[in-house]
Amino acid sequence: MRQTKNNKKKQKRNIRQLRPEKLLLLAFCLSCVFYCFSKIGLNSYNITLSVEDQRLASELAETQDEVHTLKTDISSIQDKNKMLGIVEDELTENQDNIYVINN
Q1: How far apart are CA 72 and CA 66, in angstroms?
Q2: DSSP H/E element including 26
Q3: CB of 91 closer than 8 Å to CB of 84
């Protein structure tokens, strides 16, 4: 009976003890899980950044087109005769230099 009790005690101690191999296996498994979650997380973050980059690039292109259009409008308005042609009725000339716009 003593031997069976001793054997049972040894078995319980063996179960409770973490062997270095088991500890290394556990660490390896945890690192694999961490790697997988990190890879998935970083890929999704990369996709999000890529979509944001595309949105900003399209916004930039639209803004550049608007700037180009406004520059064209400004250069066409700079000519005095064209400006006077646009606002014929609402404009009165004072001393050939000052223009007053009537509301």
Answers
A1: 10
A2: helix 20-77
A3: yes
Q: What per-residue confidence (pLDDT) applies to 76?
A: 74
* Phi, psi (rounded to 5 degrees) for 4: -70, -35
Written as six digits, the tokens of 60 are 């930039």
pLDDT digits (tens, 9 = 90+) for 23-40: 899 999 999 999 999 999
Which residue has better confidence, 65 or 94?
65
Q: Cα separation of 77 and 92, whole Å?
A: 18
The residue assigned the tokens 């000519």 is 79
CA distance 35 to 23: 18
- Collapsed DSSP state (helix, strand, coil) of residue 87: coil
End-to-end CA distance of the chain: 115
The per-residue pLDDT for range 75-98, each reduced to its tens digit, is 877 766 666 666 665 655 555 665
3-state DSSP call for residue 88?
coil
Which DSSP letter does residue 90 get?
T
